[in-house]
Amino acid sequence: MPRPGRVAETLTPAQVGAAYLAACRAELQALKPGNVHVFADGHGMSVADFEASAAASAGAVSDPRASVGARVWRAVRRSRAVAGCNTNLGILLLAAPLAQAALEGRGRDLRQRVRRILLRLDRADAAAVFRAIRLADPGGLGESARHDVRRPPRVTLLTAMAEARRRDLISRQYAAGYADVFRIGIPRLAAATARWGAGAWAASAVYFAFLARCPDSHIRRKHGLAAARAVCRHAAALDRRLMGSRSPAALEAELLRLDAELKAAGLNPGTSADLTVATLFAAALQEALGAAP
């Protein structure tokens, strides 16, 4: 970590890999209704699957020689090999540009660095990411009239993501320079940490910040926009209570009931969980670079 008052121009692969692993593990400790966490597995996946995927993919994510697309492809391939299913495609799509931004030194503002990385994305990145998506085979993928991942890309990865930004929150981060991560996630993490200290409840608060404001893309793909909006409305009421509480553990039983209800209905807010990991990862990278959140 840099000394106080000093700015690290770049981070080492070891620092980036450690930050990525820490973010993945911290998110699993958080109670995230509908998603996989230490309180309860779900949707045919376990905490162990996610832990194995994080460990297997960390080296690819932090490879200083890889492009964004190559990072995603290699990390998905390694994750799939150990978990046997899609555990972390969304996490990897969000983590790869953040990792590359931290590994390349140009300024202390992480978001500005990410924007520059995104503008450099090309067709080779798109081809590698399309290949990774096909391998991961996320639920509810469907087909697209333009830039379908089953066909060779004719545009850059950024252009393809921009096309999907209105229906997919991960694509929106690419198109909008990670606006939701930096405007929703990181401020919420700072507020929750100031209120309760760093830890699992701060990560839960980040999850609820996204779930309450952004209809979850994974739910939308599998169950439709109306279902995603209904979960969003329910989460908004809980989010207000959570952030108004001096002791978030008092809500634990109620959140676990919601967790069971969502899982019984097959509703998995996986994109909200992915954005939580991205927020934790971005905050750690930003701190390591010496920039204040």
Write the layout of secondary structure elements.
Layout: H1 13-29, H2 47-61, H3 68-83, H4 89-103, H5 110-119, H6 123-136, H7 157-163, H8 169-175, H9 179-196, H10 200-213, H11 217-223, H12 225-243, H13 252-264, H14 270-288
User: DSSP strand (E) fraction?
Assistant: under 5%
Annotated CATH topology of the domain at 13-191 and 274-288: Triphosphoribosyl-dephospho-CoA protein
The number of E-state strands comes to 0
Major sheet: size, sense and barrel closure? none
Q: Per CATH, which architecture of the domain at 13-191 and 274-288?
A: Orthogonal Bundle
- What's the level 1 CATH class of the domain at 13-191 and 274-288? Mainly Alpha
Radius of gyration, Cα only, in angstroms? 18 Å
Would you list the SSEs in sequence order as H and E? Answer: HHHHHHHHHHHHHH
Give the overall silhouette: globular
Distance, first to last CA: 15 Å
Residue share in helices? 55-70%
Task: Record keyword descriptors for this entry.
single chain; 293 residues; mainly alpha; Triphosphoribosyl-dephospho-CoA protein; 65% helix; globular; disordered N terminus
How is this structure best summarized?
This protein has helices spanning 13-29, 47-61, 68-83, 89-103, 110-119, 123-136, 157-163, 169-175, 179-196, 200-213, 217-223, 225-243, 252-264, 270-288. It is mainly alpha-helical and 293 residues long.
Molecular structure report:
With about 290 residues, the chain is mainly α. The chain has a domain at about 15-190 and about 275-290: Triphosphoribosyl-dephospho-CoA protein (Orthogonal Bundle), CATH 1.10.4200. About 65% of the residues lie in helices and about 0% in strands. The protein is built from 14 helices and no strands. It has helices at about 15-30, 45-60, 70-85, 90-105, 110-120, 125-135, 155-165, 170-175, 180-195, 200-215, 215-225, 225-245, 250-265, 270-290. Helix 1 packs across helix 14 (about 270-290) and helix 2 (about 45-60) packs antiparallel against helix 3 (about 70-85). The longest helix has 19 residues, at about 225-245. It starts with 12 loop residues before the first helix and ends in a 5-residue tail after the last helix. About 50% of the residues are buried. The model is unreliable at about 1-5 (pLDDT under 50).
